[in-house]
Amino acid sequence: MAAEKMALAKAINESLRRALDTDPKVLVMGEDVGKLGGVFRVTDGLQKDFGEDRVIDTPLAESGIVGTAIGLALRGYRPVVEIQFDGFVFPAYDQIVTQLAKMHARSLGKVKMPVVVRIPYGGGIGAVEHHSESPEALFAHVAGLKVVSPSNASDAYWMMQQAIQSDDPVIFFEPKRRYWDKGEVNTEAIPGPLHKAKVVREGTDLTLVAYGPMVKLCQEVADAAAEEGRSLEVVDLRSVSPLDFDSIQASVEKTRRLVVVHEAPVFFGSGAEIAARITERCFYHLEAPVLRVGGYHAPYPPARLEEEYLPGLDRVLDAVDRALAY
Amino acid sequence: MTVESTAARKPRRSAGTRKSPSTKPELVQLLTPEGKRVKNAAYDKYVADITPEELRGLYRDMVLTRRFDAEATSLQRQGELGLWASLLGQEAAQIGSGRALRDDDYVFPTYREHGVAWCRGVDPTNLLGMFRGVNNGGWDPNSNNFHLYTIVIGSQTLHATGYAMGVAKDGADSAVIAYFGDGASSQGDVAESFTFSAVYNAPVVFFCQNNQWAISEPTEKQTRVPLYQRAQGFGFPGVRVDGNDVLASLAVTKWALERARAGEGPTLVEAYTYRMGAHTTSDDPSKYRADEEREAWEAKDPILRLRRYLESSNHADEGFFAELETESEALGRRVREVVRAMPDPDRFAIFEHAYADGHALVDEERAAFAAYQASFADGEGA
């Protein structure tokens, strides 16, 4: 297999397979990751091929999953753990924040924590409560963690490879509504750095910054805007921590306008950090304040209302209009 | 509301009279508080071959640990340490269990395991950095197979379980021991570690020092059953040992470690002991517990009882005790000197180990911090 078209979920599956195959220290663990292959089938077939000792069905206890992964990492393993859904990560939040994130610093660098925490996240799939959230800012706020989110199959494949190779803990947010989106994956490519953003569409009038599930939306927004004669640049951040401010800055110095889009609530979201830093860096380049489009400061709504809550084509276009009106 | 559910909500006044053989605590003891060796059919074999020299060694460990602990308390009072968590009264539980371990076993301590650290060969002065505020631990866990002190209550029991799962995967016959307290027994992480270790049959010993107090809350605020009995519900054995009896603590831990090595899975050991001092130097036990309770436990002192045994069995002479006294004072002096000379960390240590592979923001902030410091006229920073 060199280049092949596959769904994003399958790309992660192939990436995990490659890691399990090449490094005997890599483990996959989580609820239902074995025979079932995970509720989204991301780990489908892995237990069959690598055994129960390496692809581990765990008790239904998220803190226990991350806590034991920390212990396994101390023993020299490289666990990739799955949290079944975004809204279920909180029992593990204590272990992630107080232990996983701080162990390297606490030990003055003597202990490494090569643990990947996979979290399917975001809405748009008509799910029940706790199955559609975007808690990435809660992790990006914590020093010691790295936070990434691929937007397409190729990035999902390669970013997973790089996350597993990282000696730092990586929170790997998988855009669940894009699991079934297909893209070309070249397994012999040489990937760029994990924490570098990519300009996925060049433009001159305004920059749209997004990551994970919102990148595709922003590309659609750019298409729609193009019909109105507006040229939008789209930057796929890929990494929320560290965050590639240099790439955003370079784009904004060119376009002079910036709109940040994420599903997570706007209030204290990653867009707030981007707005603050880009304003600081690009104060004399900006023609308009940095605008943000995201979720509201309300609990994630029942599925019948999620289209109202989530950033959609029109809501992003509205922000684009407002930014261009300055 | 049905009659039935109303009844269930009434206090059960008959609870105290219900007979339940499974809730009667049994205590493994090999040395009485008076220093008399008592036979125990199940556990005698684990200390049967112990030599007088080894017994003196256990005594020495306990005396030096207590001396170190007292010095640290003094250093806190003198302002050299910000805080100290004394192990006073728990020496036997820690030295007994600590000396049961092999070098290749791995220890996951709380922040009070100074006696276990001593057994592992961690220099006691290394423990003081975090209490002085110069680091958050900082010893290399892998040089003595002694993990860093964990402050969040109960978290380390899961790390121990994961580590033990790794030991089993490696096919090694090492064992892992997780220390925690009666307060921690209420934490979800401890329950989850019991579940995980039982399900995976992990070679881990859960060593709970029930010192009766979680800061100001007595054990009755944590549990309605003796803690060791909780193991049964998870599918592995639990045993309560006299935590002020170093010999019994040693024997029971050896038994539990042997089970782990033999692939028989986890064991819960509840070492029944008493926190003679405050929770930490910031605490004031006079607010919540009676002096009489402490006095009652003083009579069960772990060091005194072994001394009585050593003396009555002629295993140690005056010379030994005198020599140990000198060694003890020398340790106190050394600890004092090392702590007083302990330098503050370099200010850039803030950024030093935040990440293993680096982080752009940390680099940026370090550079900004350096520029800020360099902006002062003398170039020495603020």
TrEMBL record, chain A:
TM stretches of this protein: none
Entry-linked InterPro entries: THDP-binding (IPR029061), Transketo_C/PFOR_II (IPR009014), Transketolase-like_Pyr-bd (IPR005475), Transketolase_C (IPR033248)
GO molecular function, one term: magnesium ion binding
Domain of life: Bacteria
Transketolase-like pyrimidine-binding domain ranges (all copies): 6-181
Family annotation (Gene3D superfamilies): 3.40.50.920, 3.40.50.970
Pfam family, one: Transket_pyr
UniProt KW keywords: Oxidoreductase, Thiamine pyrophosphate
Cofactor needs: thiamine diphosphate
PANTHER family assigned: PYRUVATE DEHYDROGENASE E1 COMPONENT BETA SUBUNIT (PTHR43257), PYRUVATE DEHYDROGENASE E1 COMPONENT SUBUNIT BETA (PTHR43257:SF2)
Protein name per the record: 2-oxoisovalerate dehydrogenase
Organism: Streptomyces griseorubiginosus
TrEMBL record, chain B:
CDD domains the UniProt entry points to: TPP_E1_PDC_ADC_BCADC
InterPro entries xrefs: Alpha-ketoacid_DH_E1_comp (IPR050771), DH_E1 (IPR001017), PdhA/BkdA (IPR017596), THDP-binding (IPR029061)
Cofactors demanded by this protein: thiamine diphosphate
Region (Disordered), start-end ranges: 1-25
Organism annotation: Streptomyces griseorubiginosus
GO biological process: branched-chain amino acid catabolic process
Native organism taxonomy: Bacteria, Bacillati, Actinomycetota, Actinomycetes, Kitasatosporales
Keyword line: Oxidoreductase, Pyruvate, Thiamine pyrophosphate
One GO MF term attached to the UniProt entry: branched-chain 2-oxo acid dehydrogenase activity
Name of this chain's protein: 3-methyl-2-oxobutanoate dehydrogenase subunit alpha
EC number: 1.2.4.4
Enzyme class at the top of the EC tree: oxidoreductase
Domain Dehydrogenase E1 component as annotated: residue spans: 60-329
